[in-house]
What we know:
9 helices; alpha/beta
Amino acid sequence: MQCTDCNLVFVDVIESWDILQHSYDGGLLKSFRRKLMLPFRTFKNHKNFDTLTRRADTIVNFIQEQSGNPIKVNFLDIGCNKGFLLASAIKKSWNVYGIEVVGELLGAFRNLYKEFANQTIIGKINDFHLKFNNTSFDIITAIDVIEHLEDPVKEMQTIYEMLSPNGIFVIQTPDTSCQQAIDEKEKWGALKPLEHLHLFSPNNLETFAKKIGYKNIAFFPCFEEADGNFVAILKK
C-alpha cells in the first residue's frame, strides 16, 4: 500500500513474528545448518571477509568524519548481522554494542571479540533497550534496517531515547522516490512484503524524523546502489 498523504509504502497486514523471522533466518533447514556449523566457523575465515571488511571500514570512516572524529564513542549497530561494522568500530577503539535477530550470524564475532560478546543481544530494539536502559549512545547505525521495522514510530522513538545529547543516528534504506522504483514499479527489488514492511523516501523520512524530535537531518550518497538506497544522518 502507499499513503496518499506522505507516500510511505507499507505492508497493510504484517505477518506474525514467527513467519517474519523465517524470512531472515532462511527457514528451519538453513537455520539448523548454520547452528550446526557454528562451532567450526571463525570470523576472519568468512569467504567474503576482505570485501565485507572494506565495506565496513568505509562506513565507519564516513561516520567518524561526519561526527567530528570523536575519540571516545559508545556505538550501537542495529541489525549487526555478522558483526563486520562492529569489528571496524573496535579498530577505532569504540565501545561497541549490537542487535541482531538471527543469533547464529553473530557466533563467530562473539567468539573472537569475547570482551564485547555480552554487549550484543539476539532480539529486537525494545529487548536491547530493556537490558541497557542506562546506557546512551553517541552513534547508532541501522544499515538496511528501518525498512524491516514493524512499528517504525515506536522503534525510532526508542532509538531517539537511546541517543546521547547531540548523538547521531545513521541509516541506509531503499528510496521509494528513486528512478529505479519509478521505472520498475511493482517489479522494484525493494518490494519484499515479508521483509520490507515500511519503505521511505528522503522527504517523508525527514518529516517523520522531525516529528520524533531530531533537530537536523542530512542526506548523503548511498554506501551501495542496490534498490536505489539513500543514506541519512539524524542528529538528536
